[in-house]
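Checklist before submission:
- one chain only
- standard amino acids only
- sequence pasted in full

Submission:
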Amino acid sequence: MLAPMSEVPVSRAQIDELLDAAGAVRNRDLLADIFRTTVALAGDDISRLDLKIASASLHEMRLAFNTFRPYAHRSKVTMFGSARTQPDDAEYHQTRRLAADFAERGWMVVTGAGPGIMAAGMEGAGRENSIGVTIRLPFEESANEFIDGDDKLVAMKYFFTRKLMLVKESKGFVALPGGFGTQDETFELFTLQQTGKSVPAPVVLLDIPGGTYWTSWVRFVEEELVAGGLVSPGDLELFAVTDDVDVACEEIVGFYRNYDSIRWAGDRLIIRMQQGPDDAQLEALNDAHGHLLTQGRIERTEPTPAERSSGDALDLDRVVMHYDKWRQSSIHRIIRDVNGWMPA
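Returned file contents:
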């Protein structure tokens, strides 16, 4: 039986001494939990392989956190797609142009730092606007030439830690045609959005003009997943499909035209934005989305005590509602209406 954390043989004084020695000032409660978990592992009868996985995961997450930290103020878009795409393929040119458009708007481009679509994204954005999260594979010796040797490149051993960093730091996502890896990354994006395990974010499925990759994929989702009751029709609102680079860029950037972020306060959803609704807009919001609530109406609100204590976006306007957590995908509908209050 696994011993409870309360029985870990290390005192708070010992942990405080270690934190003091490390110079820790902020978030000492969370750091103390990490110490306790590490000590608890020492008393668990687990294999050396399991310990290697835990050690390597924590080590490379630390490296990745520090790679991204200097650029926390920059908006980022992650681009997924095939490593097999060639530089003379239409998908490569489409990706390179889109990445250049994001860079011109001040966004950084994050990719898996490999060849193909990943290289195209970094070539288009330029080294100064690129961050790479590569995976160590036996048949890929190094990152692509557009990011290799850069400080904004981190190499990961495990796919799950790599996917964490490809998703965690970005405000938008673009998926281009690709194989199993691209499908895996794209479906995981939708799973995180559908279940509320990540904050709402725009996802664009970008094809080449006349291409059928994503339209065929959507047909499969509609005919097999939606028709079979395996996902809800509203889950199709989690993404946009286009073959137009300008439309793709605007879909991502425009998602934040007015909308800024969400925060849950118990069972209440708070949506934060640059410009809150006037009376007519608030009424229209309730008329259009009242069926998504478990009770009451959508109302204007001031920052909650938790937001005030943490200084969390206190300058923004807010609306609050008792939102049905089973309908996470439909939050995108409300965000689209909120963005409609601001000119394009």
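Reviewer check: Residues 258-339 form one domain.
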